[in-house]
Write a structure and sequence with these properties.
Chain lengths: 317, 364, 513
């Protein structure tokens, strides 16, 4: 029975389910490294998912929808940034307000634009990037089935995410932008005194996180599902936060941690075939990713150290 | 260094000053909400007057408002108490579900016993269930510093799936609908109009008395007991509290459990007073609205009563607003979010200005 | 021509005039010491020069040209470098990363680490400031970190170097080293301005001394033309009693007995090693040492905020080693913590509330789980009067009080319990002369009433003034134990840095080394 579970598509599915988590988590990493807590990844993802589908339906072009999703995420991020950086509001509360706003706004617009709550019509999804044929027979066929199944069957954003993770990781530790970003989150006053613009740096970081979260939403609605359902993010934004913590506030770590959560998600779906044999209710499987998040946090928190200045509004003398 | 109001005089002035920001936030939120309504091609004046009608237009409507305010008082208290102790209980929704679950299940088990045993027992069970659901996040926060926002949120999802499973499986009443069996009368909180025949019919139920009592009790706990003293001390300054011998760990856990208990109570009251049973969607986000209530009330348990009433009215009138002005009920969520936004931003700005002034005076 | 000129600089904050028409000049190759008490306005002035604050009025000239300094970036561009009292270093980053931050050698945004490291090495060699370019700041000693700060300013091309209280965290030997570095910088044409409140320092190191008081420049002189007494008078405006009158001690039996204590720090490394000492009732034992030699961990172990790894702590014969803070307080240990804002008070609570913090579960303040408002108010009234706390009312939030009055509240609370042992850490940090006097008097009064006092302070002056016996803590060990009468500042200073084992006084055997 194990071979029914451990199939190539399990791992492919893991990578696929990890993608929105990873995008949001990397966004969270960048934002938090600059010293701004971003609880609102969930809301930014949701508006991204909605904007993506809405614009794709209107324009008929899925990629335009993706662009709209990024933009929508950035708009909400700008709100969060404004409240957190300029108004110096409590960043967790501001993030929560954004989440609720996203939920309310997308629901409101659903009814206003489509006339009914629930789910929108289907939009064309992004097609897989590669369409290669390979050997099907014998050992070569077996290897090809696994390799292509896991690595070559994905849609563009999935690959983009891996690239983003790599670039972000490199940039954070090897570029001037990255060095200054890290200084902002650890000791903003030190950065200020050498002439770095703390406010601008933080705004940029928040906007980037919004863009990535919006992109994550687009991946959900335009790559995975094909339509928008109210509340479809289902807590992924929060799991992304945990992934960031688990990944020690690095983009590469966030990606790998997301893979773990994605794997749990994929496994949960696969395990449902067990239901044919033993009568386990589906809800117990749905719970798994959330339980895993708590377990991960419990194990990791003691040793994971956040950027020192996180969550504290910066005040010039 | 700066003069503060002398005790006795200027209390009213201070109260008005304190209320200014929340009131302004609500006004602003309504204004921006109106902008959304306009942008969607509907009439905001019609919408808000329909809302008002739906909330206060007659005895039945007022009763509805009271009924909707009841769980909000309790979740507002839950979030407010947490905030006072420095904790953000964003997972009140999950604790609420567990509380409702406890009441729905135990209420059937205890069928046949007199109401003056059942009702208190069920309320207690709901509170305990909510507290239990908050215990693990509290412990994790105290021991390893795991952020309670993430953990309570996770438990919220877990709790909802748990209830969903029970309601479609083991606890399902016979029939098509996924819900538990109906509670016998001795396990419910009756409506005011059922108990006092002279009152006009409405859905307002005795649960609101429980909620008001809880508000008073919470206030008293915070202001008049050593436990509340410690919660407030830790909320303001955990280091100083620890230095003076207060156990920050124990305070964290107990505060989150008390918060969870209040949220659980909300679930129990809702099941016992409104529906008489538990089903999948019985909460329309009371846990999250509680956040807006708590912030609007500036985490003051007595002010929570007022703030909850406001949101209860919004909720009660939203249906009429949709019916008469064709404005989707989701607008209420938007207004809620905006209120949170403005309260958080304004309040901190004011405080930051005051704090900076203090620092400059004592520093230099 | 002066390299820096300040004319009529004024800056007001709500309620206080921090700078009142200040005039100051600085010539290249000159060392100027800016002397003044806490609150005299020195830091404000320097923050203005560095662009962190904008003056309300006045003119600044650099190299004769009028300038308006609106940000640190501008100040740096003008060649003004500043080493702050609290270092502006990013702990997890390396020395090199910190030095080049903001002006990283780069190609298209990618940092050229090799160029960065070589530039740091060049500077380090040229000015004799040895550092390890790849070390992380958090692993460096304070003296080393200060070097990095200076290198940072030099890297940015500073021709004017401002040092804010540079010796606050250094040992006497490190201070000597610092001023050697300053003199070599000045020999290359830099101008150095250092802020301090230490008289001996400014007399020995500066070419010129500018004295500030209450926001104004009240005098300018040269070391040859004045002395400590003269400077103190200018600083404070009146004849200053440099030491409080102290009656001889009459110590009774032992109250605190520490044997073989070993305590680890936050990272698990040993901070206190095999420490043994006794404090008797009616005596003040002062612990001298440079910050970071185990004082914090020692205090935390004694008051119950940190579990020791080994050894015992006994209070009047009772073992309190494993007790937490709450039990320690109940057993008779009172603690005046070193940072009254972070550890001593809940600033948002009112004075009455702060006065019962720690006792809030016990009668008379609480009975059967309910706070007794009358008892709390009564207690507040009495303590406010007893300790002369200046506050509009007992209901005023503690954050509204001045530093001195805040410390009085802490003292009132801790001494009000009539403890067996008082542990005081940096009790007069950041206080003005009047408040310092008050605190010292109270500590001595407690001593005379029979309390055992353990005083930990980074100010040698304070230890010498109050203690009956002095322990020197170095590297987590007690390296010397001397009666106060036989101790000298130089001797103690030497021991604080690990030198001169057995000395600290003129003659006689010393402690463990």
């Amino acid at each position: 029975m194990l071979e029914h579970i451990l199939t190539p598509d399990l791992f492919a599915s893991a990578i696929r389910m990890a993608t929105p988590l990873a995008l949001a988590a990397i966004g969270g990493t960048i934002c938090e490294r600059s010293g701004v807590v971003n609880i609102a990844l969930e809301g930014m993802m949701l508006v991204g998912a909605f904007a993506g589908v809405a614009v794709a339906l209107v324009t008929g072009h899925t990629w335009v929808g993706v662009a709209a999703a990024i933009l929508a995420g950035m708009v909400f991020a700008a709100l969060h940034g404004f409240a957190s950086i300029t108004l110096r509001a409590d960043q967790v509360v501001s993030g929560t307000a954004i989440n609720i706003l996203a939920l309310g706004l997308t629901g409101f617009l659903m009814e206003v634009i489509y006339g009914h709550p629930g789910t929108t019509d289907a939009a064309a999804t992004l097609a897989p990037l590669f369409r290669m044929q390979g050997p099907t027979q014998g050992a070569a066929g077996g290897i090809w089935r696994w390799v292509s199944g896991i690595f070559l069957s994905h849609t563009p954003l999935v690959y983009a995410t891996i690239a983003i993770a790599a670039v972000a990781q490199w940039a954070m530790f090897r570029t001037t932008w990255g060095l200054r970003l890290r200084a902002l989150g650890e000791h903003p006053r030190a950065a200020d005194t050498v002439g770095i613009d703390v406010v601008r740096g933080r705004y940029v970081a928040v906007l980037v996180s919004g863009a990535l979260a919006g992109l994550a939403g687009a991946n959900l609605s335009l790559e995975q599902v094909g339509s928008f359902t109210e509340g479809m993010t289902s807590g992924r934004g929060f799991i992304a936060l945990a992934a960031n913590i688990f990944g020690r506030w690095t983009p590469a770590g966030s990606y790998l941690a997301s893979l773990l959560f994605g794997f749990a998600d994929a496994l949960q779906i696969k395990l449902q075939i067990l239901r044919g044999i033993v009568n386990i209710p589906p809800q117990l499987f749905f719970m798994l990713p959330y339980i895993l998040t708590v377990v991960v946090l419990a194990g990791v928190m003691g040793r994971a150290i956040a950027p020192a200045a996180i969550g504290k509004p910066y005040e010039k003398e | 260094m700066s003069a503060t109001a002398r005790p006795g005089t200027g209390r009213l002035a201070a109260l008005l000053r304190d209320a200014a920001v929340p009131v302004a936030s609500v006004v602003l939120a309504v204004l921006i909400g109106s902008a959304f309504i306009l942008a969607s091609g509907r009439d905001p004046v019609l919408a808000f007057s329909a809302l008002f009608q739906g909330a206060f237009g007659g005895p039945r409507q007022i009763g509805e408002t009271l009924m909707r305010s009841t769980p909000l008082i309790l979740t507002g208290l839950a979030v407010a108490y947490g905030f006072r102790a420095g904790l953000f209980n964003i997972g009140a929704e999950g604790q609420l579900f567990l509380g409702g679950l406890a009441a729905a299940w135990l209420g059937i088990v205890m069928a046949g016993l007199p109401w003056w045993i059942n009702v208190p027992a069920l309320l207690l069970a709901a509170a305990v269930a909510g507290a239990a659901w908050a215990y693990v996040p509290g412990l994790l926060k105290a021991r390893v510093g795991a952020h309670e926002v993430i953990t309570t949120m996770m438990f919220s999802y877990i709790g909802r799936y748990l209830v969903s499973w029970l309601v479609t499986g083991p606890l399902k009443a016979p029939g098509q609908i996924p819900q538990t069996a109906a509670l016998p009368p001795e396990s419910t909180l009756p409506r005011f109009s059922d108990v006092f025949a002279f009152l006009p019919a409405s859905r307002a139920h005795l649960g609101i008395l429980v909620a008001v009592a809880a508000a008073v009790a919470t206030w008293w706990l915070l202001e008049r007991t050593p436990l509340g003293f410690e919660a407030r001390a830790v909320g303001f300054n955990p280091l100083a509290s620890e230095t003076s011998g207060v156990s920050v760990e124990r305070t964290t856990v107990s505060a989150l459990c008390i918060s969870g208990a209040l949220a659980g109570l909300a679930g129990g009251v809702e099941v016992m007073g409104v529906y008489g049973r538990l089903f999948d969607q019985f909460s329309s986000g009371f846990g999250f609205t509680g956040i807006a209530v708590a912030l609007l009330a500036k985490n003051n348990p007595l002010a929570v009563l007022v703030a909850a009433l406001l949101f209860g009215a919004l909720s009660a009138g939203a249906g009429t607003m949709q019916l008469e002005a064709d404005v989707p009920q989701k607008l209420v969520l938007i207004v809620q979010a905006l209120v949170i936004f403005f309260v958080a931003a304004e309040w901190i700005v004011r405080w930051a200005i005051r704090r900076r002034r203090k620092a400059e005076v004592s520093g230099a | 021509m002066p390299i820096l000129e300040l004319q009529d600089i004024s800056k007001a904050f709500p309620g206080v005039l921090a700078n009142d028409r200040i005039g100051l000049t600085l010539d290249p190759g000159e060392i100027v010491g800016l002397l003044g008490e806490n609150g005299a306005g020195k830091s404000t002035l320097m923050n203005i020069v560095y662009g962190l604050l904008a003056p309300d009025s006045g003119r600044i000239r650099v190299d004769g040209r009028p300038v308006r300094i609106r940000s640190p970036r501008q100040a740096i561009g003008l060649g003004i470098g500043m080493v702050h009292q609290h270092f502006m270093l990013v702990e997890p980053l390396t020395v090199t990363e910190n030095i080049v931050l903001g002006r990283e050698p780069s190609r298209a945004g990618v940092i050229d680490f090799r160029a960065a490291r070589s530039r740091v090495a060049d500077l380090s060699r040229r000015y004799g400031l040895k550092v390890d370019p790849d070390a992380r700041i958090r692993d460096l000693s304070v003296g080393m970190q200060q070097r990095v700060e200076i290198l940072k300013a030099l890297y940015q091309g500073a021709r004017i170097l401002i040092l804010d209280e540079p010796t606050a965290v250094l040992t006497p030997q490190e201070v000597v080293e610092l001023f050697r570095v300053i003199r070599s910088l000045v020999a290359e044409g830099l101008a150095v301005l250092f802020i301090t409140h230490k008289l001996e320092e400014v007399l020995s190191a500066a070419d010129r001394i500018v004295v500030m008081r209450d926001g104004r420049v009240v005098g300018e002189t040269r070391p040859q033309e004045t002395d400590e007494v003269g400077l103190a008078r200018m600083m404070v405006g009146r004849e200053v009693v440099l030491r409080v009158e102290k009656a001889p001690a009459h110590p009774a039996g032992p109250v605190l007995e520490v044997r073989g204590l070993g305590v680890a720090d936050d990272r698990g490394l040993p901070a206190v090693r095999d420490v043994s000492f006794t404090v008797r009732g009616g005596e003040v034992v002062g612990v001298a040492g440079v910050d970071g030699n185990g004082q914090r961990e020692l205090i935390e172990a004694v008051v119950g905020l940190r579990r020791p790894r080994e050894g015992t702590i006994a209070l009047s014969g009772r073992d309190i080693t494993r007790m937490g803070a709450r039990e320690a307080i109940a057993a008779g240990v009172s603690h005046v913590p070193e940072d009254r804002h972070r550890r001593g008070l809940v600033l948002e609570f009112d004075v009455a509330g702060n006065l019962i913090l720690g006792d809030h579960r016990r009668p008379p303040f609480a009975r059967r789980g309910v706070l007794q408002a009358a008892a709390i108010a009564d207690n507040a009234r009495r303590r406010i009067e007893e300790y002369d706390v200046r506050t509009p009312s007992a209901r005023t939030p503690a954050g509204n009080l001045s530093g001195g009055n805040q410390q009085k509240v802490v003292l009132a609370r801790e001494l009000g319990r009539k403890p067996k042992l008082l542990v005081a850490a940096q009790p007069t940090r950041g206080l003005d002369v009047g408040a310092i006097e008050f605190v010292h008097r109270r500590i001595l009064a407690a001593r005379d009433a029979g309390t055992a006092v353990l005083l930990v302070s980074l100010e040698l002056e304070e230890i010498l003034a109050l203690a009956d016996r002095i322990l020197v803590l170095f590297g987590g060990r007690v390296v010397s134990e001397v009666p106060a009468a036989e101790a000298t500042a130089e001797g103690l200073g030497l021991l604080m840095t690990g030198g001169g084992a057995g000395r600290g006084r003129e003659s006689g055997p010393g402690g463990t080394a």
